[in-house]
Design brief:
This protein has 139 residues and is mainly α. It has helices at 3-26, 28-62, 68-85, 89-99, 101-124. The chain has five helices and no strands.
């Protein structure tokens, strides 16, 4: 199935279904308040995680290390903040999972698993070698 179909049709349909179910259980105004509450709390935690990731990245830069994990983590925190701004319960749950460092590592490992396999395949085809010329100067 086309991933764009799932993103643009399936995700809003799921969100509408969850709105109806939660609204039927707790009421329409409480559902609306819950949506705003999760957005505000999520953005607050995204700000805290972003500052913490920035500090960790600066420590790596000062130690002359490349802050690869911090860059990927910062991008996932930005995606989490976007998901928390979008009204809906499913996107809020995914956004909160991306804010937790432990679950963020799990998501990143799942997302990068296929790329690691491709990298291993291309590395196995390469043979490193060195050419040594034993001829001495004729002078």
């Amino acid at each position: 199935m086309n991933p764009f179909f799932l993103l643009f049709i399936g995700l809003p349909a799921l969100e509408i279904y969850l709105f109806i179910e939660v609204g039927g259980q707790i009421g329409a105004l409480n559902t609306l308040a819950l949506i705003f509450f999760t957005a505000i709390v999520g953005l607050y935690f995204a700000k805290l995680q972003g500052i913490q990731t920035l500090k960790s990245g600066m420590v790596n830069v000062y130690q002359n290390k490349i802050p690869i994990y911090e860059m990927i983590s910062g991008a996932s925190i930005a995606v989490a903040a976007l998901l928390l701004i979008i009204p809906g319960f499913f996107t809020d749950i995914v956004g909160f999972f991306l804010l937790i460092p432990f679950t963020r590592k799990i998501f990143l490992n799942i997302a990068l698993k296929d790329q690691k396999k491709d990298r291993v395949k291309t590395q196995s085809k390469t043979i490193d070698g060195e050419i040594i010329d034993n001829k001495k100067d004729e002078l």
